[in-house]
Amino acid sequence: MWRYRSWLPVTDDEQPVSLGEGGTPLVRADRLAQRIGVAALWVKDEALNPTGSFKARGLSAAVTRARFDGARRLTVPTAGNAGVALSAYASAAGLPVTVFAPQTTPPRVLEQIRMFGADLRLIDGHIGDCGVAARRHAAETGAFDVSTLREPYRIEGKKTMGLEVAEQLGWKLPDAIVYPTGGGTGLIGMWIAFRALRQGGWVRDPMPRLFSVQSTGCAPVVRAFREGARDTTAWERPVTRAAGLRVPHPLGGRLMLRAIADSRGAAVAVTDEEMEQAQQEMATLEGIDASLEGGATVAGTQRLLADGTLDSRSSVVLFNTGAGWLYRVL
Known about the structure:
Elements lengths: L25 E3 L1 H7 L3 E6 L9 H14 L5 E4 L3 H13 L3 E6 L4 H9 L3 E5 L3 H15 L2 E2 L8 H15 L7 E5 L4 H15 L9 E7 L4 H8 L25 H10 L3 E5 L1 H15 L5 H15 L8 E6 L10
Parallel strand pairs: 2-10, 3-4, 3-6, 4-5, 7-8, 7-10, 8-9
Antiparallel strand pairs: 1-2
Helix pairs in contact: 2-3, 2-6, 3-4, 6-7, 10-11
């Protein structure tokens, strides 16, 4: 990721807190493309980041800047992946961290957080409740809160996903990007990256259409998009097995809707059962052990093709944002 440091807000003499994040493969998925009926399909496999998800990019950037700016301790609410990533990068930076996670978080994820030495505190509720607890902890202890969009650097790390996709496709942009959205920093970061690439003359292609995929059990962005709203409202009683999509009131809702509108994209919701079936297809057809969120992009693409929102002649990049094994209960 740090090969793009000239695009990132770091000083020339600053040493990044890095575990080798970024540079994830863009896998050509021809069999899956034939199965769902699209002309060209790639899977950007973020599961191969050091901590098993795309969260490594944002937390590498956030911890780098937090340490430089004098933070002495860190805190974060998490649905799982962010907690694992922050725990690892805080450990690498020599900073103590307190992680607030729902009690329903899969045991393997909690084990990873503890393994990196974090102070893990379990909350009876969802990530929104964890966010309240993390902000209270930050106010009481002086810990720096690295929650999604409550500091400016996580989204800078996520921006590199867009830069990588453009470079890996030979500085050509795909017609569409289908992305599973909870907090939304990945979608927003890529929107920023593609705008910058086009404005700087690095690419001449139109902006990729950005498609948000959520769960039918927690779909605040989809609801706002369908209603033509400018911002999201809180989703009551969020229920989905895809932990990364169980974000009932994303702070970045307004920016996600702007990115979708600016790119002529859309937002679509799929069921957990559809995610699971698509997750299995990614494994058996392409050898990719995707998270449920990654499976959601396949199911979402099928929905977009079926209703005519996406043309079957399109070139499409799907994002698998995390490792399937990390959340699988054996």
